[in-house]
Amino acid sequence: MSRPPNAERWSLTKPAPTADKQAPFPIIADKSDFMGIRIESVSAMSAFVQAAELRSFKLAGQQFGLSSSAIGKTIARLEDQLGVRLFHRSTRAINLTHEGEMFLDRCRSVLCELEAAEAELANSTGAPRGRLRVGVPVTSDLFTPLFGDFMLRYPEIELDLDYNDRFVDVIDDGFDAVIRSGEPSDSRLMHVKLGDFTSRLVAAPDYLERTGVPRTAADLVNHRLLHHRFTDTGKLGDWGPAVPEGTALPVALASTSFVSLIHLAEAGCGIASLPYFAVADQLKSGSLREVLPGAEKRTRAFRLLWPRSKFPLPKVSAFVKFMTETVKSKLHEGAG
Q: 30: Cβ–Cβ under 8 A, 6 or more apart, which residues?
């Protein structure tokens, strides 16, 4: 592996000075004379980079489980050591100074080299291990059984699952990977298509007995409709190509959770448009019936996204490979 510029001055093998008990980050590196600054820790450098990229001490602190005050004090110590100001501060935002921009470039270079070294060492030690934080859509039980299989195959990986239907920033929110539908738009991320799925219009048998079974899409305007609302945009999900564009569908209820829509549909509260894999068991058991089964259906895709890196950690590579193989198989089984 190539060494970073001035590697001898960034050596982590020299004896470290005594740690400051008040410092929020451990001291693991010796002095550097770059710009006259004494870098107290690689972790502090990471805090500076996070604060610079997020333009927020609060958001940077969330990445480390620290308060914005702790991050601010760490940055202040760096500024004292430099003898220059790294950030322009206001009550609303922080912005890098010219000196801060210079220092940010050097810190990124050093941290990138350290990440590459960590990845190379991890790849050389064999089994994938460590904490793996994954963002997962709240979509019934499609993924949960697969995670159990993954845990059995990779017992040294600690899965940290965040079930949510909100928009997340994979990098800024600290995820190793996320599973989402839709088209990827972040150039900082790698992605792979896991598989396609379609939606179904469903309702409880007793609801259809009370109100009558819709025969055409136009009949939906006379029914109680349960809509999915996207958390990030606030918009309602569309009901597929069977519903003519511009049709004003009634809204009996809107929810950001597919799980709640399934329960409400089973309770006879109305008709819902839901992914097939999320209601496959209910359709088989008869607690829900498909409405307009012959209607044209729109196909969507699930994708797995993870931060772009020259040296992906083994735990990430193992998860990508496992999910690519198993989710495609699961979606194929439930294609309906």
A: 11, 12, 14, 15, 16, 17
Per the structure block, which two tokens stand in for 153? 């195959």
Nearest to 281, CA basis, from 145, 140, 137? 140
SS (H, E, C) the chain: CCCCCCHHHCCCCCCCCCCCCCCCCCCCCCCCCHHHCCCCCHHHHHHHHHHHHHCCHHHHHHHHCCCHHHHHHHHHHHHHHHCCCCEEECCCCEEECHHHHHHHHHHHHHHHHHHHHHHHHHHHCCCCCEEEEEEECCCCCCCHHHHHHHHHHCCCEEEEEEECCCCCCCCCCCCCEEEEECCCCCCCEEEEEEEEEEEEEEECHHHHHHHCCCCCHHHHHHCCEEEEECCCCCCECCCCCCCCCCCCCCCCEEECCHHHHHHHHHCCCCEEEEEHHHHHHHHHHCCCEEECCCCCCCEEEEEEEEECCCCCCHHHHHHHHHHHHHHHHHHHHCCC
Q: What is the pLDDT of residues 118-168, one digit of tens each?
A: 766 666 556 788 999 999 887 656 788 889 999 999 999 999 998 877 777
Burial degree of 38 (CB within 10 A; 0-12, 13-18, 19+) = middle
Q: How far apart are CA 296 and CA 323, in angstroms?
A: 29
* Cβ contacts of 239 within 8 Å, gap of 6 or more: 201, 217, 220, 249, 273
Instruction: Report the relative pairing of strands 299-307 and 177-181 from DSSP bridges.
Output: antiparallel
Structure tokens at 48: 């500076």
Please check whether residue 224 is in contact with residue 195, taking contact to mean a CB–CB distance below 8 angstroms.
Answer: no
Q: 67 versus 331: which is more confidently predicted?
A: 67
Which pTM was predicted? 0.57
Q: What's the distance, CA 256 to chain centroid? A: 17
